[in-house]
Amino acid sequence: MDNAKYHVVLEGRKLGPYDRRTIVGMRIKKTLTTDDVLIAADGGHLTVGELIKLRRPTPFHAERTGSFSVVQARFPASLVSMQGKGVAIPRFKGEMEVRVQKDVLRLAGRFRQGLDWKEDRVKLPLKAFAHARQRESQLDMWLTGDAPQGLQKITLELFTQEAALSLLNALPDATAWPGTDQEAAGLSRWRATLAGGRAAWAGLIVAGGLVALAAALFLRR
User: Fold this and answer.
1) What CATH number is given for 5-53 in this structure?
2) I want to staple 101 with a disulfide (CB 3.0 to 4.6 A). Which of 69, 125, 153, 217 is the partner?
3) Whole-prediction pTM value?
């Protein structure tokens, strides 16, 4: 399974062969769709979506602990975007794994750190998901937290609408996003502007203090 390769059928032409990681990467970049057809080495046909549904030959084992949690559901996914501050989540690249466990959502995958690739995982309490919204095969999720910035938005690509709906149904406390698409997009811009304004005021206060201190020193001469 590790070395399995597939030809991609596009407009009657066979391209490739490509391994699973390359095919998943092309799906993430929308070069391929979930319904595009692949031909395995034995001549069998399957779609990109069916290949993605297959269990990864090398699952992520980032920093395993001794605790045991029952996995209620497992989804292949990719991280589309993150907005806002809150939980520290690595910028996962390529295919990642999403697990629904008893009271947490576990995200695991690979990310760049300098010139190296690292593997990591993060567990998010299910009760922290305040809102969720399905958009075809993507799922937007808003998390609450202790950070003053408020909600943190995470968007995942689940590759199929069925998988996105299944993950949505696995978030028992998440309600529908009450705002509009423009509000969802503008929320992070407003927070960034607010943070920038605060930083500018802080800079002015510091600069004003330095000027006042210099004037006081000059008058004491």
Assistant:
1) 3.30.1490
2) 69
3) 0.70
